[in-house]
Amino acid sequence: TRQFDAGLRYAITDDIKLVAGVFDISKPYFNLDANNRFDVLGDVVNRGVEASIAGPVTDTLSVVAGGVLLWPKVTGEAVAEGRVGPRPVAAIGQRFEFSADWRPPFATGMSLDGRLAYRSAETATVSNRVEIPGRTQVDIGGRYRFRLANRNALLRLQITNLFDVEGYDLRGAGAYGPIPGRLFQGYVTVDF
Which bin fits 86, alpha (ψ -120 to 50), beta or left (φ > 0)? Predict the structure, then answer.
């Protein structure tokens, strides 16, 4: 295995930080071969750039945003012979996320949050003949901090996959499971 990386951290303000980096990682590529045996199929090189920005934008609004651009590649005899595709299983080219948390000044103890997540198509088989389409998902939620029986308590309500995006998650080379549909959940926690 060989890895090169470099990065920087920059304070945009006292509270808002930017972190960025580049990387180049090479290692043996293990996966299922044509006989369904887990074996070394070549070498995989993962090159990419990543960046994030995080911090409070105002006294009541905090954000986190980040993204990764990847250029994964498989090399070796099996690729040259066409038995293995040039992209590793689970390879994606892009991933971006944005999250925000707002504490309304008129509602002490309450916060509202949201998350927007995008991921590009994902390589699903060793041959690269199948890929899982890209998708964008949205989650929203809220928290309310209060006292219950003289103890600190928290009510959390959340809707994940707000727009009920359908699709599959990759479980392994050629193995899939459905992504959960829209889900509403809530719970209360109490400090003891």
Answer: alpha
